[in-house]
Design a protein that fits this description.
The protein is α/β, with parallel strands linked by helices and 442 residues long. It has 2 domains: 235 residues, Aspartate Aminotransferase, domain 2, CATH 3.40.640.10; 184 residues, Aspartate Aminotransferase, domain 1. 41% of the residues lie in helices and 13% in strands. β8, α11 and β9 form a beta-alpha-beta unit. α5 runs antiparallel to α13, α6 runs parallel beside α13 and α15 packs across α16. The radius of gyration is 21 Å and the shape is globular. The two termini are 33 Å apart. The structure holds pyridoxal-5'-phosphate (PLP).
């Protein structure tokens, strides 16, 4: 990485051609944190209020809870036995990244997983019912249903069907956008640190990568990114809003400035994976720019607030001509099981989003108040995770906390003293506070 004033320019990695094979080793070169077993599954506890008549509310009762626990522990046992991380990491970016928050040796059965920004609530009850209902028919592709399924996804955000492209998680559409809209002369431009997936695709394809420094308040410097795109006569600007890992946001004024100052041949790719968790009124979705026909692609996922990380559904929203290009590169339709889960959740979208956000905000506020009372610094969070300034290298926390039963986020250079912690259930956060404090006090 070459530091050029306010910008880091990453030299192209020669020999990183077949990205599905070199993905793990490539990221390991970039980040030398120890590699251990991984786990990206959500915990099964139910923290949300229920209403019996609504199919989207979680099932009540001992049997429902016991059933879920049995399923979870069986799957965990399976992955632990496989020593699964190495086996799957080359195709699953977040799994590969999560594993860098090393969990070495035997994994405690009651490990609290705060390392992958998952939603401990899991899929809504109505989605679980919809999936059960379609399982026996999953021997077929169900191609004929997807027009309607994708139209439902589009409509949920006020978009037309020709303005969206669904993917296997938002990862698929992010990767496609990077592949299509960067080239040997058209760089990938972002901030450091940001979510690594799109950046690593660019690197693995041998595309130039330009990472600009965050401002003092950890927000993205939109002017700097536009400047870089201008210098390169075009590029793809990746803006993660809220940003993973900082949980900081780019406000609507800055996004608006960036959209109206996009240089020629430049596309703005806005990743809104965590937008549903934002409370600040000055932060807005970039979807209106898509509707206005700007050079803007917005990416959304069902992995976070909807609790469907394992179901792998996301979408890109873009002007029809851009969406058409992205669509041509799509792997295929998404899984019918996942699609039915999404359609069921969207039928109760407003309630689901409201309740889940309220639960997250409550737990997030309790955590920030606890940190504040103890004089522990952190970046003001806007997503379902936050970054804590440990005051020393965060590596000690990243490696020690899992041995005490709490898996936390991976290293995010250059923020070496920062620890990323996902917000789990209230019970998870009780354990987090106990273990964090033990390590913090030394
Ligand atoms: C900012 C951001 N974008 C995209 C993704 C990929 O998520 P998925 O492929 O599950 O939609 C993640 C994963 O954690 C993320 O943090």
């Amino acid at each position: 990485m070459v530091d050029q004033g306010n910008t880091w320019v990453i030299p192209l990695g020669l020999g990183r051609v077949k990205f599905s094979f070199v993905f793990l080793s490539n990221t390991a070169q970039l980040d030398d944190s120890p590699v251990g077993a991984t786990h990206t599954e959500a915990k099964g506890s139910n923290v949300y209020s229920t209403r019996a008549h609504n199919p989207c509310r979680p099932a009540r009762g001992i049997m429902a809870r016991a059933g879920r626990r049995t399923l979870m522990s069986t799957r965990r046992g399976f992955f632990a036995q496989m020593g699964a991380a190495a086996a799957v990491a080359h195709v699953l970016p977040e799994a590969a990244y999560a594993q860098r928050a090393a969990v070495k040796g035997a994994i405690a059965k009651d490990m609290v997983w705060l390392n992958a920004n998952e939603n401990p609530a899991g899929p809504p009850a109505c989605s679980l019912d919809a999936m059960r209902a379609v399982l026996a028919a999953s021997g077929r592709y169900h191609y004929n249903e997807f027009g309607e399924i994708y139209a439902t996804m589009a409509k949920s955000e006020g978009l037309a069907p020709e303005q969206i492209v669904a993917g296997s998680g938002s990862s698929e559409v992010l990767h496609t956008a990077v592949d299509l809209f960067t080239s040997a002369t058209r760089p990938f431009i972002s901030v450091s640190p940001a979510y690594e997936g799109p950046r690593d695709v660019a690197r693995n394809l041998g595309r130039p990568v330009i990472l600009t420094k965050l401002r003092e308040d950890y927000t993205a410097d939109v002017r700097k990114m536009a400047e870089e795109a201008d210098k390169a006569h075009g590029g793809l600007i990746y803006l993660c809003n809220p940003n993973n890992p900082t949980s900081a946001v780019t406000n609507a004024q800055d996004v608006d400035w960036l959209v109206s100052h996009l240089p020629a041949n430049t596309i703005l790719l806005v990743d809104e994976a965590y937008l549903h968790f934002v409370e600040r009124p000055d932060v807005k979705s970039a979807l209106p720019y898509v509707m206005q026909g700007k050079n803007v692609i917005v990416v959304r996922t069902f992995s976070k607030i909807y609790g469907m990380a394992g179901l792998r559904v996301g979408f890109a929203a873009a002007r029809p001509d851009l969406a058409e290009q992205l669509g041509r590169m799509a792997l295929n339709v998404i899984s019918i099981v996942s699609a039915r889960a999404v359609v069921a959740a969207l039928a109760d979208r407003d309630n689901i989003l409201r309740e889940r956000k309220a639960a997250l905000v409550k737990t997030r506020r309790e955590l920030t108040a606890w940190l504040h009372d103890r004089g522990v610094k952190f970046i003001e969070p806007n997503a379902n995770f936050l970054m804590i300034d440990t005051g020393r290298s965060a590596r000690e926390f990243i490696t020690t906390m899992p041995t005490l039963g709490v898996a936390v986020g991976r290293p995010f250079p250059p923020l070496d003293n920062m620890l990323r912690v996902s917000i789990g259930t209230d019970a998870d956060m009780v354990k987090f506070r106990e273990v964090f404090w033990k390590v913090y006090k030394g």
